[in-house]
Design brief:
Elements lengths: L4 H11 L3 H20 L4 H10 L13 H9 L4 H9 L13 H21 L11 H9 L9 H10 L4 H28 L1
Helix pairs in contact: 1-3, 2-3, 2-6, 2-9, 3-5, 4-5, 5-6, 6-8, 6-9
């Protein structure tokens, strides 16, 4: 199951109906695949972890991560996969620490993709393509902007990767620029099925 994107998408849609949650899942999936390709890792595995990282959030927000573990185990996902998914909530809703590089990337980009996505919506183009790191850094510093995106988690994510915050922002923004057309295409396909 870890390497089956079609089954993973079906499972995501079984537990998520809100377009916002599905868009976030697909966005994180694409960003994770970008980082996997860049670092010579398994794009399918990384992408599926990104796709399913919030599988339980819509239906079970009070049991986020713990319910995900139960769902994924029941569906036949590996222990490594489950560990990666639940580690993204470390320190907030999970005691499972991100240990491996892929888990640290997921921990770092989950909240950051939300912040960047919100910033893109404020632009006339509604796109990542013309966004610059300077404007993203301004949005990051404005605690009222996209207040639900934890700056502390994003900063901690950069630290866990031994990257500067700016490096994490640049890489994630680049991932979103590269992936934007795939995200749009997948969203259209998902909602026309």
């Amino acid at each position: 199951m870890d390497r089956n994107p079609v089954k993973s998408l079906e499972l995501l849609k079984k537990y998520n109906k809100e377009p916002f949650h599905i868009k976030h899942a697909i966005t994180v999936d694409e960003v994770m695949k970008y980082f996997a390709e860049k670092h010579g890792e398994d794009e399918v595995f990384w992408g599926n972890v990104g796709l399913l990282h919030d599988i339980d959030f819509e239906e079970y927000p009070e049991e986020h991560c713990s319910k995900a573990a139960a769902i994924l185990k029941e569906e036949g996902y590996s222990e490594d996969f489950v560990h990666a998914v639940i580690s993204h909530g470390y320190g907030i809703v999970s005691d499972t620490k991100p240990e491996y590089f892929m888990e640290k990337v997921l921990f770092a980009v989950d909240e950051l993709t939300g912040l960047i996505g919100a910033a893109a919506l404020m632009r006339p183009s509604k796109s990542f393509q013309d966004m610059e790191i300077k404007s993203l850094k301004k949005k990051f510093k404005d605690k009222k902007f996209a207040a639900g995106c934890s700056r502390e988690v994003i900063s901690e994510g950069a630290d866990r990767l031994n990257w500067s915050l700016e490096e994490l922002m640049k890489e994630t923004l680049e991932a979103l620029k590269v992936s934007e057309s795939n995200i749009d295409h997948r969203l259209k396909a998902t909602f026309t099925l």
